[in-house]
């Protein structure tokens, strides 16, 4: 980039810095803006860049948001913002790089309108405190948290692979072995979380990310509940927290005494989704789906994926028992139950492979003996 170049807007300057457009393309578009003015047409440089196919409206908006957020250009709280990777009601998540260490992170920034809103800030810091307690291979790692200007943020491990929801959408459904492997790892992660008095309350495919090694990691502890005396839960009786398709019956009812068995139900619904590409319950609206969690009966995943074993169907049925006392009572129990399904299948595959190898060896030995006999008998 030519340091002497003066760009018409900060957005254009940032676009050139990030090599989204070149100085030559910028100059060409500037000329088009001038020509438009000569014939009475008013167009901004951004509009011309979009019309020329060099940028799109979404990228312009993203650059604009980064500039609004940044303290100086695209720098915020010591992190250089790269791109917007997600957004929700509370805030946005950016891919960013720490200015001094060079570490790539996912930077979650609370929306400015919530900076003075007590309940939202409390939820935000509940997520920070939850992640700070949880160092585990299958849970995203918290690196840093703070406030820049009037905006709260925290930096966490950047998981560059797809979410479980994206993976299932791509594959239509996962094979049983892969789905059970992911379920076991997430169960062990949540067992660790529960042991540290943290209930997730929003387990769903979107909140399970897969890194470049296909390792699943739980994220988004934004509706977490702490079960210790040092923290107050935001749950109120009659207020549901969680996602419609994966919420436990007690969450639907707005129960105050939510515990780890709620996460077990949601993980069971997530396993069902992995195996079928479908949610356990569907409906015309959220209310109908929520009602089915309370009184509905679900269809066996074998109807949509006949390759699913009966053992796995029974596993899901127990994980998703409507009455929580009838579910597995801990994530350790879930992980053990999954292992009991996986290991016999693994042993069977090993035996089949060993049997095949032995058969090949014996066949070769027999052929050698017969050949030797023929040579000795008839070819003397």
Give the termini separation: 87 Å
Write down the secondary-structure element order.
Answer: HHHHEEEEHEEHHEEEEHHHHH
Total beta strands? 10
CATH-defined topology of the largest domain:
Transferase(Phosphotransferase), domain 1
Structural class: alpha+beta
How many helical stretches? 12
What is the fourth-level CATH superfamily of the largest domain? Transferase(Phosphotransferase) domain 1
Strands ordered across the widest β-sheet: 1-2-3-4-6-5
Query: How many distinct domains?
Result: 3
Radius of gyration: 28 Å
Q: Which architecture of the largest domain does the CATH hierarchy give at level 2?
A: Orthogonal Bundle
How does the overall form come out from the CA principal axes?
Answer: globular
Helix content: 40-55%
Biggest β-sheet description: 6 strands, antiparallel
Q: Can you give the mean pLDDT? A: 85
Strand content: 5-15%
Report a brief summary of the structure.
With 380 residues, the protein is α+β, with helices and mostly antiparallel strands.
Explain the overall architecture.
- The chain is of the alpha+beta class and 380 residues long.
- The protein folds into 3 domains: 1-57, no CATH class; 70-158, 2-Layer Sandwich (Phosphorylase Kinase, domain 1), CATH 3.30.200.20; 164-342, Transferase(Phosphotransferase) domain 1 (Transferase(Phosphotransferase), domain 1), CATH 1.10.510.10.
- Helices cover 47% and strands 13% of the residues.
- The protein has helices at 10-17, 23-38, 45-51, 57-69, 118-133, 164-171, 176-195, 249-252, 260-276, 286-295, 310-319, 331-378, and strands spanning 75-76, 79-87, 91-98, 104-110, 142-148, 151-157, 198-199, 208-210, 216-218, 225-226.
- It has a 6-stranded antiparallel β-sheet. It has a two-stranded antiparallel sheet with strand order 7-10. A two-stranded antiparallel ribbon has the order 8-9.
- The radius of gyration is 28 Å and the shape is globular.
